[in-house]
Amino acid sequence: MTTGRKIEKIAGIIRNQYSEENPTGIVNCALAENTLMQEEYLKFFQSNLHLAGMDLTYGDTVGGSQRLFKALCRLFERYFNPAIPVRQEHIITGGGLGAMADQLVQLLCEPGDIILVARPYYNGFDDDVSERSQGVMYGVDVGNTDPAGAGSVAAFESALTKLSKEGRTVRAVMLCNPNNPLGFNYERGTIVEYCRFCEKHGIHLINDEIYALSQFGGESATPFTSILSIDVEKEAGCNPARVHMLYGMSKDFCANGLRVGAVVSQNRDLILAFYALARFVKVSSASDALWSSILLDDEKLDYFVTTNQDRLGAAYRYCCSWFESKGIPYQKASAGQYVFVNLNSFLRSENDEGVPLSTPLARDSDLHMDLVNAGIFIGLGSSFHHTECGWFRFTFSVMRAAMDVALDRFGQVLERRRKEKR
């Protein structure tokens, strides 16, 4: 499917989303949106939008306000355990993390340069990296190796060797931590090994940590380790100038629509280059003020973070219990807003018109559209570059009333398919 057709299809689904006013609409369990804290955030934001005269001007810096820089430094100090204090000169902000990733690739890569990432990976990276910046995402299959473990680096070594022999330039590694779509945290030692790998080959390490505070896995889960908490020079012999962290407001703060993203880097030349482009993606003063208002309120911030984590955990367990009741395998997750489920047993070899479904993608798409037609939208595993058919990403951070409707529709499709196979 072309990018244009994909956008048109998703836009049509979004225009017809389920709500109390539109009960026959489609429940969106595909896009990573968190509505579990929507009422609380709306109440807070509606009461805490305090603008100053500066907010009606171009502001005090083009790459973000002094207010937001202070708020972000405070957030990182409280929750990310930085090995080296994050200062204003390490940060650049813009209108959404996708826009910031796009600009980062423009600055790091020449057209055609490759960024390595473990498969499956967040499908939005393809657009962020390639649509304007002309970088190339290259999915690395780590096979049966634990993707969260240090052994996964060997697959990256093999991929880089292969690409180099082909005359292609690898410019960076993208590490999505917590992982999207698999919902795990990388082990600290693994992150250190990726730093060593990047230093060895003279490439950059980009760390997407947009789900950093969306943790729900409990004591047995691998704890989240931010790249900020690692002294990469001391622990990995890695030049800090080649390590960059991405963060944003969308996921941990349940506000995809407010569009604030940040890049944190000790590479001063890179940050200065960002400033040359910053006016094209400048954060709205209103979004800047709203995010700052919660980041600078210690009591409210702690409440929102811990409550969101509790609700994510409850929603995850609720959905996984339903999957288990239906005999649906899934990959256990400990962070994020989604779970990867295996619906391979519900795929069929021909559609309702008797037309053969001859490829894995055709069989996956057939089930996907069956679910959409029934009023539930979930993510195709193949769109995340998964190597096996039958896998789908299911977003569980949906209000319970809508989730019950989604699971009821989901169950009807699966039960009908079970009966067809008997």
Short description:
By secondary structure, the protein is an alpha/beta fold.
Structure description:
- One of its GO terms (biological process) is amino acid metabolic process.
- GO terms for molecular function: pyridoxal phosphate binding; transaminase activity.
- InterPro entries: Aminotransferase_I/II_large (IPR004839), Ethylene_sulfur-biosynth (IPR050478), PyrdxlP-dep_Trfase (IPR015424), PyrdxlP-dep_Trfase_major (IPR015421), PyrdxlP-dep_Trfase_small (IPR015422).
- Residues 49-410 form the Aminotransferase class I/classII large domain.
- By secondary structure, the chain is an alpha/beta fold.
- It folds into two domains: 3-40 and 301-414, Aspartate Aminotransferase, domain 1; 53-297, Type I PLP-dependent aspartate aminotransferase-like (Major domain) (Aspartate Aminotransferase, domain 2).
- The chain is 41% helix and 13% strand.
- It has 13 helices and eleven strands.
- The strands form two sheets. It has a seven-stranded mixed sheet, with helices on both faces. Strands 1-10-11-9 form a four-stranded mixed sheet.
- The longest helix has 28 residues, at 298-325.
- The chain starts with a helix and ends with a helix.
- The model has no long low-confidence stretch (mean pLDDT 94).
Shape: globular
User: What name does the CATH topology of the largest domain carry?
Assistant: Aspartate Aminotransferase, domain 2
CATH architecture of the largest domain: 3-Layer(aba) Sandwich
N-to-C order of helices and strands:
HEHHEHEHEHEHEHEEHHHEHEEH
Number of domains: 2
Protein name: PLP-dependent transferase
Domain Aminotransferase class I/classII large: 49-410
InterPro entries: Aminotransferase_I/II_large, Ethylene_sulfur-biosynth, PyrdxlP-dep_Trfase, PyrdxlP-dep_Trfase_major, PyrdxlP-dep_Trfase_small
GO molecular function: pyridoxal phosphate binding; transaminase activity
